[in-house]
Structures are given as structure tokens and as C-alpha cells.
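Lab notebook: predicted structure, single chain.

Context: the supervisor wants predicted structures on file for every construct in the current expression panel, including those that have not yet been purified. This is the next one on the list. No modifications to the sequence; it matches the entry in the shared construct table.
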Amino acid sequence: MVEGELRGVIALDGPSGTGKSTVARRLAAQLSAGYLDTGAMFRAVTLAVLRAGVDPADAAAVARFVEDVDLRVSTDPLDQDTRLGDEDVNAEIRGNAVTLAVSAVSAVPRVRELLKLHQWRIIEEACSTRGGIVVEGRDIGTAIAPDSPLKVFLTASTDARALRRTNQDAAEGRVSSLDATRADVERRDGLDSSRAASPLQAAEDAVWLDTTDLDIAGVLERILDLVDERGLRGVAASRGRW
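Prediction complete. Output recorded below exactly as produced.
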């Protein structure tokens, strides 16, 4: 039986620190929909690469290794679970070592292709069982779910994003300075926007939403207004693949 209010896929894209993950989880929970954090998938694969001693800069070696990674993720917005095999790696994938290496690993075309196929399977299952899913990342509206009936691209000033990331790190027990976090945000922006395979960019039909001066409740309100404007609650709303 298909449950939940949302019908179809909401594609939520944007750089780090825009509130994307928090908004996506809360949006999915409010709509009784599935939730997929594609960034966590890339981070988990990166963790596996680092653990195996594979050089993240060696694209060929990374591509070969990732073929056999046993990656498992949940789609419950209230109970997020990212695993390598049976091991819970939710905390470790947010560490500094993974943060520094994830852009290099995620830029490997074969890695993106493998994870895209995995993401498609997850999205299809969530749409079949729940009715809809909120998917967040950096290329959802352009590469993963280009037929999504609602694509939102979140932005925010660099200073606002760095402050949010620093506060998040502190809340989760990671030590970081505002200056170091700002430098990392700018580094990730450059790498993600310039990579050849599925660079960070907004889909042509995406709705841009600047979150610099909005709290989470304000961002949610804006997106829920878009959901209702497009009639995505309780009716078959997806186009194309879903």
C-alpha cells in the first residue's frame, strides 16, 4: 500500500551549509515521505576507500575498488542509517578525513555512475511504497531526478554557511574554527562546481531559494507552499521516470 502525502520526487540541491539536510529530513517527515541523503552515500564510499588505503586521487583505483563496496542506506527521515556492510558509519563519515577526500572520490565518473544506479533503485522503491521521496544532494535536479515535479536549489552567503557548519560541528563534538570551515566551504564549492562529472549546478527549471536570512521553519514554509502550488500532495504527481 502506498502511504504518505507526497506524490513524486522533490529534488533538493545546493552547496554545503545551506540547511539542505535539515530541511530535507523535516520536509520528508512532515509529508510522511521517504528521504535520501546522497551526500552520505558518497561519504560512506569515501570512508571505505580511505580504510582500504586506496589513494582518493587515483581515479582508476577508486573506480575499481568502489565496484565491490557494500553500501546500505535507510530512507526513514526519522531514523537515518548509513552502513558499510553491517557497520553503522553515520558518525565516522562526518569526520575531517572523509570531508577532505570526498570531493576527489565523488568526482570519479564510475563512482557517480554506480551510486546513481543505487539511488535510482532507492527512489523507485520509495515512490512505490511511500508515494514520494525527498532527495538531497548536488546533482539531483540535473542528473538523478531530472523529471522531478519540484526542484529547489538552496543558496546562502559563504559567511552564513561557514557559521552553520561550524555550529553543527560543535554540536556534534567536532572541533573546528570559523576561518577553517569557511576555507573548507570555499574549497568544496570550487571542486564540486568544476568537476567534469555532474558538477554542482541548478537545473534550468529549479526554484532558487536563498536561506541566508531564513531559519529552518521559514525555508520549510516556502517549500511547502511550492508543494501545494504544484499539487504534489495526495495525487499522482510524478512525471517521466517516477
